[in-house]
Write a structure and sequence with these properties.
elongated; binds guanosine-5'-triphosphate; binds magnesium ion; alpha/beta
């Protein structure tokens, strides 16, 4: 079984622990107890593959963030969480993403952008379009509006980041295979070029990256109609964004090849 380490990052109080506990244990925590560091394990099957997830729920409150650099180094994928009720939490997230890219030293880091507390419509200060714009600015990072309270899009966000880790690992092993083929051809002149199929694999992976998922959640018991409607509106925006994304699919595909 493969190990996947997912790190949940974001400002204090945005709902990182609530999202994580909903995903792992299926319960909603009403009280606010600032996190220092909590680690969870969950086994799930994604696309027929058993995965052992280690989820690190990190501190958002400044006095507990000293370990952040270490979390980022060890993480394979990231949930970057802000609250739709807190403008500053999105600003903090922009800096956090920069920190992730700097520490990982690459732009190609599995991550999802999460706008949490979408059930708090009256307190909302950040629209869906703001999230869509940030996702586009970040190179079409998948975007989900979530409600930890109603479990809206919570599973979807975690599964998305694990799929991205899987795709990245598959692309890396395809690239290694291709390099081995090239080396083999260079050392063995009798080998004919063009026998490798790894290029085609990498190309397919490139196309599957193009998604902005402001997905509507399936109807759940107790989920208010307003949350459901909002999620449906978000889905329409996501489709528009996906259409825009599709226009640039060729160049993305070529980059990966
Ligand atoms: N209405 C609503 N409240 C939420 C939601 N998610 C979290 N909360 C509440 O917001 C407060 C903070 O949530 P936490 O999950 O502890 O926030 P956190 O990001 O882990 O905070 P730190 O650990 O300090 O970084 C708690 O009282 C939660 O019940 C949500 O989706 N909707
Ligand atoms: Mg917490």
């Amino acid at each position: 079984m493969r190990d996947y380490k997912v790190v949940v990052l974001g400002a204090g109080g945005v709902g990182k622990s609530s999202i994580t506990v909903q995903f792992v244990q299926g319960v909603y925590v009403e009280s606010y107890d600032p996190t220092i560091e909590d680690s969870y394990r969950k086994q799930i099957e994604i696309d027929g593959r058993a995965c052992d997830l280690e989820i690190l729920d990190t501190a958002g409150v400044a006095q507990f963030t000293a370990m952040r650099e270490l979390y980022i180094k060890s993480g394979k994928g990231f949930l970057l969480v802000y609250s739709v009720t807190d403008e500053n939490s999105l600003k903090e997230l922009l800096a956090l993403r920069e920190q992730v890219l700097r520490i990982k030293d690459t732009e190609n880091v599995p991550m999802v952008l999460v706008g949490n507390k979408c059930d708090l419509e009256e307190d909302r200060v950040l629209s869906i379009d703001v999230g869509v714009k940030v996702s586009q600015d970040w190179g079409l990072v998948p975007f989900y509006e979530t409600s930890a309270m109603y479990k809206t899009n919570v599973d979807e966000a975690f599964i998305d980041v694990v799929r991205q880790i899987m795709r990245k690992e598959a692309a890396i092993s395809a690239e290694k295979k291709q390099q081995k083929e090239i080396q083999k051809q260079q050392t063995d002149p009798s080998t004919q070029p063009g026998n490798s199929d790894s290029g085609a694999v990498a190309s397919g992976l490139g196309n599957s990256n193009l998604n902005i998922n402001v997905n509507a959640a399936a109807s759940k018991q107790g989920e208010p109609a307003a949350v459901k409607e909002k999620a449906a509106a978000a889905n329409t925006r996501a489709k528009q964004s996906n259409a825009e994304a599709a226009k640039s699919s060729e160049s993305k595909c070529c980059t990966i090849m």
